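Please think about what follows:
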Amino acid sequence: QVQLVESGGGLVQAGDSLRLSCAASTHTFSLYAVGWFRQATGKEREFVAVADWSGDTTYYADSMKGRFTISRDNYESTTYLQMNSLKPEDTAVYYCAVKKTRVVVTVPKSPSEYEYWGQGTQVTVSS
């Protein structure tokens, strides 16, 4: 069982930046790929980004490329999502999740591919 706790959400203006964090309660964090998803009100949960065990291989949803950056610190068992140039349409609850695989061969974009989830953190971007 892995517990994930997100933090760093909040209310910002369009064009601002936020850095989300997700701390994992495991000493084997490097055995997992880590992903970020988001869910806006009334919409399905949407893939944002994923990183392999090292953080060297990353993938992003097209709408986030160039604005969002996923990273991880295996010593701290923490993953981060740096979000720049935020837009009102980025407003959502952001979730981190882990998948028990070290490498990412095919991008796991479906929430069902991840074993453990955090409780989410709200990001609201005003225009």
User: Anything to note?
Assistant: The chain has a mean pLDDT of 96. The first strand starts at residue 4 and ends at 7.
